[in-house]
Amino acid sequence: MRVSLIQIDVDPAETVEARRERVAELVRGQMGSDLVVLPELWTVGAFAADLFTIEAEPVDGRTAEVMSAAALDAGVWLHAGSIPERASDGEIYNTSLLFSPDGELRHTYRKIHRFGFDTGEAALMSAGETIVTAELPGGAVLGLATCYDLRFPELFRLLVDAGAGILVIPAGWPERRREHWTLLARARAVESQAYVLAVGTAGTHGGLRLAGHSIAVDPWGAVLAEAGHDEEVLTVDLDPALIAKTRADFPVLRDRLLGLPTPPRPAPPR
Description:
14 strands, 26% helix, alpha/beta, 6-stranded mixed sheet, Nitrilase/N-carbamoyl-D-aminoacid amidohydrolase, globular, 7 helices
């Protein structure tokens, strides 16, 4: 299974529409891959909170139109990163879009864990509430997560329990916490015994330099490929059979003890 990860430079001087068209051409250039993955909120920038409301669009809006055509032209499954989605009830979500090679929007995932500690995304966007997996031809099952979700291992346990063996994580991760990005990506791979495809953005937006360093990790935690700071395309070959083999050879997931009682909180000191 061939996968291309497109690390996009989100330049505030580039218009949203120009970036859509440019990225569509990058996707078309990945013909021959089975799956292509884009970063989080690449149309506006993950830290450009002032644009979330201005550029919010429905899941069948302009970005979906352009990405659907690109997926069809390239003949690939396209995880088109995420967009600021304006839902029918007026709420805004950080929503990922997954297209099939015929250009059909097959799955959406609304980011569950919003970053910002009551500011930015956490203040402007609503939280998703649904775990999403997607089975591709050949039996590979994707588990969908986004950026800050990476810090919450319980989400990935649920994805594994739902059958996921390839964890796809578009992000807009800041440079100042880059070591956390690569550490957590490898940790999620090791503990889930799954491939991790973590795709970030490059450049500077919202006043922050982004980490880049998109990374593909195998079920043993080995790094298959890692990007630098600039716009870059990584192409890696995955062996879906390695997921089952890893889990059979080292059956750690079988030994989980679930349903333990929650211990009482200690009494406050007097």
